[in-house]
Amino acid sequence: MVVAKQVAQSQLVKISLLISILVSLPKTIYIYNMISSGDMDFSIERIMDFLVRLLFFFAFSWLILQLNANWAYITSKFARLPHTVLLLLANIVVLISGLALLEYLHPILVGTPLSKQEKGFLFFICAIVLIILFFIARILRMQIIQHDNMIENERLKQENLQNELAALKNQIDPHFLFNSLNTLTSLVRENERASQFVKKLSFMYRYILQSSDKDLVTVKDELKFLDSYTHLISTRYRDRFIIDVDIEAKYLTAEIPPLALQLLVENAVKHNEISETNPLKVSIYAKENSIFVENQIRPRTTLAEGTKNGLLNLKKRYFLISRQEITVRRENSTFSVELPLNATS
Questions:
Q1: Which residue intervals define the domain Signal transduction histidine kinase internal region in the entry (predicted)?
Q2: Residues 93-107: what's their mean pLDDT?
Q3: What is the mean pLDDT of the chain?
Q4: Taking the model in full, what pTM does it have?
Q5: Are 120 and 99 within 8 A, CB to CB?
Q6: H/E element, 103
Q7: Would the N or C end of the chain have less CB density within 10 A of its end CB?
């Protein structure tokens, strides 16, 4: 048996009470007028008749709502008839049984049986109420379905964002590893430099593995990683590559996505000429709760190896993690990227 999410009983009770009051309103007005006019024909039987009908319509309304809003969505593997047919039969049974019960109890509780005219009138009223309540129940059920769909869509959206974030974080350029190993090959005879190079390379990939399950790291940790990365770049390009880092201590505890600074430096190396006559200088500094990475624009004559989507991926990853947009500027031959910081208190 499968039980769907139920409409709250408080809603069903409120609607049932409202329907019973509305249906009994003419009778209420009639009794009020009799009391106001001092009509001595007024008796306890009329009060009992009013209360019995009020309770009947309340119970009838609640039962119809419960049937069509909740019970109809409890499915059983033993059900043989189509759902619509079963629901129609159940509503008819409730209507006929309810009227039969009222006809039986009315003489006992009120003291007088229902006339043929009253039976016909009650059947007509109950049929109208049943139709109205059927549509109300459908609306209540649709609200629950819509609410559940919204929750499910939000869950899937968050899951998709997490998957996309994981995919973006895993897009680390393998060419850098190959280039680093090629550089290492040329240093094997220079033990001190080779040892330092290997240590920096080892630290880099240990940091990459450790930060793979983190959304944010401190600027201090990111700068340590960047120092190892730029050491490898400087080893390859020597004095043709210059990096200038000027970040005040107050910004070191702020947080940014891991590998963000490294990716921007790597982007500058990939897309700009690096030569004896045109060395590449990358400046990294902080101000007004943002980190800026800048370099002079000197486009390469040949395309560098690796993905062209590094900056685009960083934009996506930065927004997914921090809900902040990075700003890219190209002004006066200077390429600048601004990373807004998540300050930690």
A1: 164-241
A2: 88
A3: 81
A4: 0.49
A5: no
A6: helix 83-109
A7: C
Give me the residues paired with residue 295 across strands.
282, 335
Q: How far apart are the first and last CA of the chain?
A: 52
Give tens-digit pLDDT for 120-135.
Answer: 888 898 899 999 988 9
**253-281 pLDDT tens trace:** 999 988 899 999 999 998 898 888 889 99
The rounded distance, in Å, linking the Cα atoms of 211 and 166 is 12
Task: Give pLDDT tens digits for 38-71.
Answer: 664 556 777 788 888 889 999 999 998 888 888 8
- Tell me, what's the pLDDT at 76? 47
Burial of 215 (0-12, 13-18, 19+ CB in 10 A): middle
Q: Which two tokens stand for residue 331?
A: 């002004």
CA-CA distances (angstroms) from residue 256 to 200, 344, 345?
A: 22, 11, 14
Task: Give 230's DSSP letter.
Answer: H
Angle 116-169/310-322 helices, nearest 10 degrees? 130
The contacts of residue 245 (CB under 8 Å, 6+ apart) are 223, 226, 284, 285
- In single-letter form, the type of residue at position 172 comes to I
State the pLDDT at residue 141: 85
160: tokens are: 């998709």
DSSP 254-296: SEE-TTHHHHHHHHHHHHB---SSS-EEEEEEEETTEEEEEEE
Reported residue count of the chain is 345
Token pair of 101 as six digits: 């019960």
- Domain residues of the chain, as ranges? 2-167, 170-340
- Token couple for 40: 């001595």
pLDDT tens string 124-176: 988 999 999 889 988 888 888 888 888 887 877 777 777 666 666 555 555 66
**Structural fold of domain 170-340:** Heat Shock Protein 90 (3.30.565)
